[in-house]
Fold these 2 entries.
Entry 1:
Amino acid sequence: MNPADFEFISSLILSRSGLVLTPDKSYLLESRLMPVARKHGLKDLDDLINTVRSRKDEALIVEVTEAMTTNESFFFRDTKPFDLLRDEVLPPVLEKRASQKRLRIWCAAASSGQEPYSIAIVLKELGAKLAGWKIEIVGTDISHDILKKAAKAQYSQFEVQRGMPIQLLLKYFDKVDENWVVKPEIQNMVQFKYWNLLEDPKPLGNFDIVFCRNVLIYFDAKTKGTVLDSISKLMPDDGMLFLGGAETVLGVTEKFKPVPGQRGVYARV
Amino acid sequence: MVARKILQELEFETSEAADGQLALDACNASMPDAVLLDWNMPVMDGITFLRELRKAPGGDKPIVIFCTTENDLDHIQEAMNVGANEYIMKPFDSDIIQAKFQQVGLL
């Protein structure tokens, strides 16, 4: 790919999704965008880029952007954040909201749904403590295709085994042929919406807890700051934020501070 | 065996038994920290092995993870009732072994 084409396509993806593509990641363009090119009957990547450039076809641009997003997801990914949610984060949050009995959680990069369903299972396991509560878990993503998969709540044997403990699999999934489907009691706790993190998330409403894990790593420093500042505006003073293990708020925003002893958990300032 | 290779890459010390009875004899001689167990084994099948293991002195200690092609709900439920700690449905990959070992606190 010539430098001008790389500059064009990486700038387009940056402006649409915040994803930063450096020249050393040009192989990613090849592997992710060739299926899009083939689907549209275009012979190679150059042909696809020229088509995007000349046609300015919005649907094709969205398709290209979605193809570049990373949709790796596991149930209970990294385990520890979900233990911290159950043992450290939820108890004080629930205590403070005991009178209104309302809790809203946002998974800002929900991908194929494993994270929001894992959170729903953590909450369901609290049982009687949450009787009568109105719980809303909102999972958003920039990819329409991946959101369709998330809403379908159907996972392969490989997918469920990457993180779902067997006892919880038996309890909260139905086996349908070779796949595993999340039971309605868990599905009903989660709703999925298309959302681009570069946009002001105000229309999504307020959230007590936000999971924004393993997405900021793809953004440049300025975008990270903008996204985190926007998230902070949706949260009450005691709101809590979860980031991925390789992410931090330090040097990025002053709206959150790390919670000592709780790796990956940040308190609203 | 694929599982052994994955476990060795994760720096576990491993040993193998050719059938269920030999596996039980080996455990009785020296209890391991964990057992990765197939359902279908010669001489003594996996579920019988697990019942016998859990009755043996110190046999409540090892973490037992089934790793088998018996993927239906009845088999999984029976294994858990008899005292398995986790269950890996074949086919699997190294991510799955790692995830399961993390869940039971071995990693």
Entry 2:
Amino acid sequence: MKNILLVLKREYLTRVRKKSFIVMTILGPLLIGAFYGIIGWTAMSSISLKKIEVIDQSNLFNGKFKNTEELNYTFSGEKLDDAKKRFSKSGFDALVHIPQDIMTNPKGVKIFSEKSLSIELQSGIEKNIEREIETIKLTEAGITPKVLEDAKMNVSTQTISLSADGEKSNSSVAATVIGYICAFLIYITVFIFGVQVMRSVMEEKTSRIVEVIISSIKPFELMMGKILGVAMVGLTQFALWILLTFAITTAATSLFGEKFAGSPEQRLEQVKKMPQAQEIEKQVAKETKGGGVYGKVMSAVQTLPWVTILVCFMFYFLGGYLLYSALFGAIGSAVDSETDVQQFMFPITMPIIFSIAIAQFVIREPDGALAFWTSMIPFTSPIIMMVRIPFGVPAWQIILSMTLLTGGFIGTTWLAARIYRVGILMFGKKPTFKEIGKWIFYKG
Amino acid sequence: MNNILEVHNVVKRYAQHTALNDVSINVPKGVIFGLLGPNGAGKTSLIRIINQITAPDEGYVLFDGKKLHPEHIRQIGYLPEERGLYKKMKVGEQLLYLAQLKGLTEKQAMEKLKEWFIKFDIKTWWTKNVEDLSKGMQQKIQFVATVLHEPQLIILDEPFSGFDPINANLIKDEILELKKKGTTIIFSTHRMESVEELCDNVALINKSHKVLDGPKKEIKEQFKTHTYSAEYLGDLSGEFEDFDVLNTIEVEDNYKKSTLKLKPEVPVNRLVRQLIDKIELRTFGENIPSMNDIFIASVNEVPQ
């Protein structure tokens, strides 16, 4: 035990003191913050103003198109042919021609431009025309614009989770997002830290220090000290990230919170123009009350079971890491060089990659059979269970999954130890899986 | 207990072959013991068993009279043939780490390290990264790591390989000093000159069997050919009553060198008297087999 702690201490200190650790610690949250900042910024300011000339031969729409930040309409009384000839020098980005018979022939509108138009521009023009036609037709039918306004009701649904403790409102959007983020984080970190263990084992073999060390301590102690030392580095990294992100977002909210909340209509406009985000953002905007989109998302996110998520994240990160790093250590001990180890990495990482691939299906049906079984099997549970948790998982399932994961990493550690103690002294052979399998049964 | 180590009938098998076949060796306390043998003979397997890195399939090992036990790890220092260090770790920190793995407390380790650093005059190396040192410097560090915890038994596998003559001498002096303090040293090597110079006892392992074992003097007696060598001016042709001339070669400056075999029961002095009657003697001595000769002779014999 004392020896494991000695090794743990060395592995921890050598890594934590490295410049790369400090850089990653600071860089991580900054990168995430910058990422979101950039998205927000480009959404707000990137789109340039487009000038549209409109030749309205039906005379129904004159001046009725609303100018926005991005589209400026100018109605002109020119003849179409003249306008077309003049177009390239006119300074307009597009020329819209509405034929006289638009009411009976709605497909007669033509948009002329030198470069092909964006879908958004096209649909913007179409919507404007549609809206006006709608108003005209309704007015002809006797319905005034005011009546129309009152008729529009903004329906939004609020999802509420029903449980023995009473009602708690939750947000399926936020759950999806958080689920994905957690799954990805675990995927990446298990990989990064697991590979660190593997590299360390290989370095000790190549530099031949391993024989000196195991004349003093048991191979198992060396392996465990290494695995636990790197685990401590990972936990330290996370703790620092959480602290830093917390500090940065608190600072950011107080600096930028007003800017974001200021013009809800503006924000909504920007957001609508990002087709990918349309569906989700509409939901979020409708779901929450008050404030800009940023504030709305934050309050949705606050309804999630945060404590459960954090605690489970820590557990599943540790469990998944311990399970996989043991295997990484084992294959690191079996080979002599970086190139040889590649052939073993794929089979080992296959379950993790598989988990990320099916995560989207699990999100669609968090309580389905696929979701249930993959959140129980120790090789996939760290990722899949984290995807499920924001949606709410019964306590017994979580406990069962955790127990199985614990059994899983004890099992892989035992297996890895038996491979490790043979592998670290074996040089010159290019082992196959079969060969490695034999090592498990070699006497101590 | 007079033997620091007793190996009793040890057998070690690996998947493809048997590395040690019924090997028994006794290592007395306080000697320098040479463990010899061709490559692949089984020496490293035996050393790993003594260090408890692996265990024998049959037989057992006694350390200072008691069966080999994890406690004994602290009493043994080991310098493997393939020896390395953590390249990116600082020298001082690394030696402290290795000493603690052998059971010293940090404080004890610091004290002893200071002594060694002063002795080898390497105080400036403390904060250097290992990769910044030359190979010879690294090997000095490795040697310090091996002996730092003052073990009763030190096992050195090819300790002189890679050392230049000056550093090799340094290590040799250290080994002799350790012996004076009562430490037993086993070293495994192919360099017969060092065995010639340093070892009190030797054992030879060939093809997983022990072939020789005992004090160096006795083994040399065993291999004696009972011949003598003389370098001289003059001529030794013809028959002699008490000895036979086995061969003669010319060496520089008209001198000749002959190998002479004494007839049984004839005392050496008679031979010498007869020689100085006939020739001008320059050198004369008994042909005592060198360890090199013994090694080659033993290994070439077909074992049972």
